[in-house]
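Training component of the fellowship. As part of building independent skills, the fellow (R.M.) carried out the full modelling exercise for a liganded target. The chosen ligand was D-malate. The inputs are recorded below so that the supervisory panel can assess the work.
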Amino acid sequence: MADNAGEAQALFTITTAHLDTGLRGFPVGSCMTSKVDPIKGVSYVGYPIAELAPREPEEVAFLLLNRRLPVGDELAAFGDDLRARRGIPSDVLETLKHLPKEGHPMGWLSAGLLILGMRTVTHDWVEDAKNLIARAPELCAAIYRIRSGWGAPIAPNPKLDLIADFVHMLGVPGVDDDAARTRLTALLKSFYNLHMDHGGGNLSTFVGKAVASGHADVYTSLAAAMDGLAGPLHGGANEACLAQVRTIPTSDPAELEQWVRDTLASGDKVYGFGHAVLRAEDPRATVQYELGEKLCPDSKVFRTAANLRHAAVKVLKENPKISNPYPNVDAVSGSLLEACGLTDTTYYTVLFGLSRITGIAAQIVDERTRIRGGKGAPIYRPKYVALDQPDRHIED
Ligand code: NMX
Ligand code: MLT
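Fellow's submitted model of the complex:
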């Protein structure tokens, strides 16, 4: 579409068969940060995700915000800029202590974003986006520490990079020597890069942009986006997937096939498999399988997940209604997090959210300040076809 800006082009013919299909495939907007090819998977501003996975997270965040990689001292300057924006007011952290401990961490993240916004919003799209990207690690670390009873929140260390500082602020019990911290930091850097963005139409991003189209601020929009991410068919699949893998009593390939058949027959999902757009193994999963072979080749859950990579595909392929039988980004991420000391699955989607906040914030900035000559997209208002509602009148 960008090739012919301003010219109307027939991208899609809409028929009644398209109603109630979750907007699947409907072209509704443009996206400058990333593209999802059904076979090749996601690229950020043209760069394949596998090439970006090992880079510094600040470099990848800069790419999404500026639609080009940093040159010269731009990366250092961007890192310094984010560092200068860190710091959450202590009363925000204090308020978190009153949230119900039985609430899911994604509820805490959504509430935390709203509370942080109440205290720090500037109503400038770019400023709020950058402030939020810089402060989200402290918010997520505080959620972990307060909710799981690890202790008081740990203050940011201005000498550390974004993800090294996140690991410092997490203070994960048991991850207390330099080697363990370095391992966790390396994993979370890769995890952050892999999860940042996935095209314009994924549920959480779409919800975030929809809320922002009503001119709600970045924090409010991101809280709504995180509510969208929370469900087990979307970001919540990383929690559901490892929880499911842990219940599998075998890593034997033939027995795993039977387990997949039984799971489908019971009406349950095979979490970590399938996708609304992808039609091949997700390159983000490929990167993580390779990482796991280096990081934790002997871990029981990793071996089960690695064998499911083939066993599940074989069985899911037999079911013609399943459009994509291949592993997605959530297929193995939990096994790697567990191997590096983050064992509580209920927080895994917060880690997904921490990263996705960056991509969604970048897309909100684009949609609010760049498109339509800087005017921004109008308020979202798709059409729903009214069914079974003939004109009626109340009779006295
Ligand atoms: N396990 C069981 N059933 C599945 C699976 C799966 N992994 N994938 C698709 N199906 C079913 C799906 O529920 C649907 O059933 P029905 O017609 O009864 O509603 C049917 O197959 C056709 O669905 P698709 O067109 O293949 O997929 P759709 O685009 O509707 O949904 C997902 C995509 C990702 C929601 C779906 O594949 C799924 O539920 N996967 C498991 C959950 C998961 O791993 N989600 C993570 C996605 C990535 N992310 O992080 O957001
Ligand atoms: C993903 O990262 O795979 C998603 O956000 C789901 C999607 O693109 O629909």
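The panel noted the following from the submitted structure. The beta strands are 34-37, 41-44, 47-48. The first strand starts at residue 34 and ends at 37.
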